[in-house]
Input
Amino acid sequence: MLELSTPVQYVKGVGPRIGEVLAAKGIHTVGDLLHYLPFRYEDRLNPRGISELRPGEMATVVGEVRNSGLFRTRKMPIFQLTVGQGRARLRCLFFNATYLQDKFTPGQMIALYGKVEEDERSRELQIIQPQFEILGDPTDSGENGAEKKAAESLEIGRIVPIYEAIGRLTPRWFRKAIRTALDNLTPDLPDPIPAAVRAHLGLISPRAALWNVHWPEPGESFEALQSSRTPAHIRMIFDELFFVELGLELKRRQQKAQTGIAFGLDDRVRAAIKKILPFHPTAAQKRVLKEIAADMEKPYPMRRLLQGDVGSGKTIVGFEAAIIAIENGCQVALMAPTEILAQQHYFSARRILENAGYRIVLLTGSLEADRKREVRRHIAQGNAQLVIGTHALLEEKVEFAKLGLVIVDEQHRFGVLQRLKLMRKSGDVEETSRATLGGTGEGARPHTDARPHINSAPHIVTSTPAEPDVLVMTATPIPRTLALTLYGDLDLSVLDEMPPGRTPIVTRCGSDDESPKVWEFVRKQVTAGHQVYVVYPVIAENEESELKAAIKMYRELSGKIFADLKVGLLHGRLDAELKEQVMRMFQRGELQILVATTVIEVGVDVPNATVMVIEHAERFGLAQLHQLRGRIGRGAAKSYCILMTGGKVSEEGQRRLDAMVQTNDGFKIAELDLELRGPGEFFGTRQAGTPSFRVANIIRDAQLLEAAKHEAAAVIAGPNAEISAEEISRALVHMRARWQHTYGLVEVG
Ligand code: ADP
Ligand code: MG
Output
């Protein structure tokens, strides 16, 4: 008998070699294999008779190979395959498909799936480039008739699951392996979801779900199958979401149970805040500060996410929170994702806070060793009140005298699972390493992605064993309900109002041959006293060729087109000091035009910059374009974003550009981005190679996600008339195992 936890290699027909192939795709156990769901289904219960096919429909046809061959046209080789049922015949064409030459032999049974079309000349029906699967070979089957029959019954005469192939493991291979696993699966599959929760959602048993999701019962709605809405799908999706939410809820509870610092917020502190404000805060800023302040007053640590579109004014809110902590005698750490941003925060902090007498230091990875040591000493001795830095702050151990608040800026690229991963380093670190901010603790993996803990708890020590408050600021516009559910462990504040006096940015699209006109426009703006960004797509800063192109562009602009103006260059490879110098010059207006790569994507704030020209705009993602554009339109003067395209633009690329021209609204852009890229990419779960949800899709399954959060909260709240203590502890045990196994996360709780 197989258990869900049995290594997958013990499934008959798998073995160690294939086991390795599967492991590379995250399939280690029988349970993992059974969670490898079909991406679609074919109705081979009622495969279509060739004679009844209609042009335009998607159809599955099961038939016999009659003949096949390659013929060459002037344009390309075309492979033609004829499939028959009795006397009826259907032609299939595959373009450029020389590789199919020796694939078929007459008499083979084959299943085809594709769109039926009518050939314009002959009026005959055909399917172009169908998906196909060879079901049975007349030559190689002989010896075991019974086995062949059984195999056939998995392939024909039913609704058949279609799996994504992994290397040489075909959909057919998966059908066999999964079927074998199901046939040998232990009958004893306890249900870790409490009975009351099951009842609320009408969930079927795990066993029935596993069977039916792979081998649907005859009569199952085909539409429900294709849209993952059968009872089996719902059970599996809910199951996955429920245990993620359960972990998040538990996390949240534990945070509330920890000792934090109850900051005092009296008139003196209020006055201190008022004193530094350079402008009247917006109503949204006021509301959000209130939410933050209320958290900070509480005796448990704050874990709050502040979400606000680019330019909504998050920085000042962060500074206000910092003052509350500092006025209470605590230190504050403000972390930014790049050095440039850290430097910028440092400059604005000095501008805004230093007059009021606050002591601010900048600590970045690139400081000279001597200076670093000195800064660290200031921090350790408690002289430095506000410490601004990059993640180097976390990567290298920094000792604080009394750290009370950590602000993490611009976490707009975080996927939920990445966040979950990062938690491993936070609340889970042993007591012993609490003395430092970011000491990763024993056994924690080294940072590979240079991101800070989001949730996290840089640990303080010293006299108080209290956890510092954490405020995370992000520009990712996630719809509120979704954000609440995804960031179940964080409280959420939203800045949904732009500071006054902004005129909407005008966005235009143009191609390279219009560049003379564009440069003329740039010159006009500069003459009027404004500043301009010219952004060049060096998306990965290690791309040599892209970087060269950007530098060439800079030479052309600074040496020829704008030889009489002051043009600067900023890219990720410049050393930190130079970067800082360039940025500072631009900030002070000593440079009129800044040619830059995407290093300026986040956070850079120069209100006098009114034009952004983005070269090869088609190469950028939508979210990135929006972030870039957020660098302008920060002052009262009208701003312009000009999207230049070079060469051919794909259809999707064009949709991105159109979206940019049409709207400035981060939420709308995010929605479109989601649509164009799919949730995996959007939430960054894929890019970083972190696991994404196995069966759930947080967009498609948003409602189930809400239900899961709701039910999880009820379970965590403790036993009641519906749910027993035993059920809760069973669910928690299962949750921990799941987090550990599936997401590679250390246990929660
Ligand atoms: P983001 O949310 O993108 O980090 P910033 O905090 O950088 O935005 O703020 C964007 C710009 O708006 C800055 O120049 C800032 O000084 C200005 N700003 C923020 N709040 C206000 C306000 N209430 N009134 C006027 N200007 C503001
Ligand atoms: Mg910002």
